[in-house]
Amino acid sequence: MESLETLILSGCSNLVRFPDIDEKMERLKTLDLSGCYKIEYLPVNLQQVEFLEELDFSETTITEPPSFIFRLKNLKTLSFNGRKVIQDRRTNPMAPMLPLLSGLSSLRQLTLSYCNLCEGDIPHDISGLSSLIRLDLSGNNFISIPASLTGLSKLEFLKLSNCNMYTLGEADIHSYISGLSSLVHLDLSGNNFISIPASLTRLSKLKFLGLAYCKMLESLPELPTRVGHARIDGCSSLEACNLVDSASFRAINCFKLADNINALALLKKHFKAFAHSREEFDIIMPGGEIPEWFSQQKSDSSIKIPLPMR
Prior knowledge:
The protein has helices at residues 170-177, 255-260, 263-273, and strands at 6-8, 30-32, 54-56, 77-81, 109-113, 134-136, 157-159, 185-187, 208-210, 229-231, 248-250. With 310 residues, the chain is mostly loops. It has one domain (6-273): Ribonuclease Inhibitor (Leucine-rich repeat, LRR (right-handed beta-alpha superhelix)).
């Protein structure tokens, strides 16, 4: 076992404890215990695994990560989902451990979802994670985007879905823009805010915006063309938006929006904007009729269109 580099026990739902391994695992780089619902603790002998790069103990019954994790200088990926053990607890054993994160300078991906974290639980010295590019804090309890995240200048992916957020104030977002200047993917799905501030569009590298199932959302500002993908499925209160310049946007079950816009006119405008694009895209329209200006008309469930020879 001394040469072992990868150990994946994911989905071993009947595994009660980590296997007893007498040999040292000094070369271990990847340990995946996700879905091992009955495992309650990590063995102390993992302290010797100084070269560990990936650790996933999501959906275990581990309530408090051992402190030696935060001394793993080579750790690049750390994943924990507290849905099974922390989400509904009054006290949160995870929050006091978060200041120790700043010592993981090599960390590139961090998942702390459904850990019952509040906005004040995210320490300001999280900015010490200078290599972090992907952060998933979905399923926690934040009023708005935690201000302490603004020091993560290299962050490209931020997921804050289902966090009960009810405000994205203009002043707050304005102060975040400079700190999150590398952000490419922002997922705010399943939150409770009514509107999105226009200053959000100043995230100069943003390409994906997820707002699906924000059921209180009533309107959206015009998004720049660089936002190539927007998801607003299930935004049942949404009445107005201007996403036509996005290469891909999806608005399934946005009934008020469908009532308020001329979907066919919007589709024509979308076609015109991307007439010369070579990107593949899908179209879903409200109603049950094929527009008259479609050259291919058929009542069956599919249509075969002959293409000209090159």
